[in-house]
Amino acid sequence: MNITLNGAEHAVADGASVSTLVSQLTGRMLAPDGRSADGRKLGVAVARNAEVVPRSQWHGTALAEGDDVELVTAVQGG
Fold first, then answer.
1. HSE of 16 in the Cβ direction (CA atoms, 13 Å)?
2. Which end of the chain is more exposed for a tag (fewer CB within 10 A), N or C?
3. 21, 68 Cβ separation under 8 angstroms
4. Residue 78: count of CB within 10 angstroms of its CB
5. Do residues 73 and 10 lie in contact, with contact meaning Cβ atoms separated by under 8 Å?
6. Rounded Cα distance, 32 and 29, in Å
7. Residue 78 half-sphere exposure, CB side, CA atoms within 13 Å?
8. How far is CA 4 from CA 21, 28, 57, in A?
9. What's the pTM value of the predicted model, to 2 decimals?
10. Is the separation of the CB atoms in 33 and 56 below 8 Å?
């Protein structure tokens, strides 16, 4: 199915969750609570259809055809 990810069309598998998407994009496995399975900070926030999805809900939030997803990565610097 197709979603819009950060303004660009992006294909994801049917039934994919926010957690699945974040894992694919970051290359890191996620625990069901949305934390990185390796224990390191993830530094990612997600909004689906203009609503922030709390990390604890990533696993249970299914994506649907046409969803508009914004994925923001924290960047350190000055």
1. 22
2. C
3. no
4. 2
5. no
6. 10
7. 0
8. 12, 21, 20
9. 0.89
10. yes
In one letter, which amino acid is 1? M
How many residues make up the chain in this entry?
Answer: 78
Give me 9's structure tokens.
């069309």
Place of tokens 């994925």: 71
Contacts 24+ apart (CB under 8 A), 11-18: 12/63, 15/62, 16/62, 16/63, 17/58, 17/59, 17/60, 17/61, 17/62, 17/63, 18/46, 18/48, 18/53, 18/57, 18/58, 18/59, 18/61, 18/63, 18/69
User: Beta 2-5 vs 68-73: how paired, if at all?
Assistant: parallel
Nearest of 56, 65, 58, 48 to residue 26 by alpha carbon:
58
Q: What is the pLDDT of residue 77?
A: 64
Q: Tell me the two tokens of residue 64.
A: 């649907």
Residue 78 reports pLDDT greater than 80: no
